[in-house]
Specification:
With 256 residues, the protein is an alpha+beta fold. It has a single domain, classed as Hypothetical protein, similar to alpha- acetolactate decarboxylase, domain 2 (60s Ribosomal Protein L30, Chain: A, 2-Layer Sandwich), CATH 3.30.1330. 21% of the residues lie in helices and 40% in strands. It contains 7 helices and 16 strands. The protein has a 7-stranded mixed β-sheet, with no helix packed on it. Strand 4 and strand 5 form a beta hairpin. The chain binds zinc ion (ZN). The site of zinc ion has 5 residues, from strand 13.
């Protein structure tokens, strides 16, 4: 009896010592922003596969068919018509960043602030310039400007050319959620250095890649990513592409 009890206790302690699957907040990334810049718009990873690594995040779809937002356990596709569609498990992504989001720090803002002021607020929540942070901002936005890109045809143009066909959407006094990441400058080429945010409305019907916004009353949640898991495409397009050129300025032009 005593042995059984101490065995049970031992097992319990051991279970407690095993970190739960998502105890460490990690960023999972598929492909690189530079590969996307160079027109690698087809990946081999399905959303079923992606969802094993996270359900909160941003990215795009094969053939660059719109903007992806993962929030509250669901993935959405904002196509060039500005409408958010649910994503099939069989759909594939050429570029995505996901995590299992668990808020580490939360603040509430009461008044309308532009991006520059918000950045100052975020400074306290995201103290190190050298870490990756996940960001979720839920609230009312007096103004928000997003874009989406139309599905591309082969041979694929570079991203700087593809975004010339982007559709831009403006929302006023809209409820919704911003989802994204802040990535350190030393990861440029791999990811978008700085802030990269996507938006979806509270009714989950519209959104896109965020170009500009003002936030009203909102809850800001952030989480530090303590590890970074980069998976690279194995298709011929990725394997053969010359990815030696630096594209930091071009990334800024396309994404900001
Ligand atoms: Zn984006």
């Amino acid at each position: 009896m005593k042995i059984a009890r101490s065995l049970a206790l031992f097992m319990l302690l051991n279970l407690a010592a095993i970190p739960s699957l998502h105890a460490e907040n990690g960023l999972f990334q598929y492909s690189t922003i530079q590969a996307l810049m160079e027109g690698i718009y087809d990946g081999d990873l399905t959303f079923k596969g992606l969802s094993k690594h996270g359900d909160f995040g941003i990215g795009t779809f094969n053939a660059l068919d719109g903007e992806m937002i993962g929030v509250d356990g669901k993935f959405y596709q904002v196509k060039a018509d500005g409408v958010a569609y649910p994503v099939a498990e069989t759909a594939k992504t050429p570029f995505a960043n996901v995590t299992f989001f668990r808020a580490e720090k939360t603040i509430n803002i009461k008044k309308a602030v532009g991006f520059n002021e918000l950045e100052k607020c975020l400074g306290a929540l995201l103290p190190s310039a050298n870490l990756i942070y996940a960001i979720k901002i839920t609230g009312t936005f007096p103004y928000i400007k997003t874009r989406s890109v139309p599905r591309q045809q082969k041979p694929y143009p570079r991203l700087t050319d593809a975004v010339k066909q982007q559709a831009v959407f403006e929302f006023r006094e809209i409820k919704g959620v911003l989802v994204g990441f802040r990535t350190p400058p030393f990861l440029s080429g791999v990811n978008v250095a700085g802030y990269h945010l996507h938006f979806i409305t509270a009714d989950r019907r519209a959104g896109g890649h965020v170009l500009d916004f003002r936030t009203g009353e909102a809850e800001i949640e952030t989480s530090r990513m303590t590890k970074f898991d980069l998976h690279l495409p194995q298709n011929a397009e990725f394997l053969r592409k010359d990815l030696t050129a630096g594209g930091e300025k071009a990334v800024d032009r396309v994404e900001k």
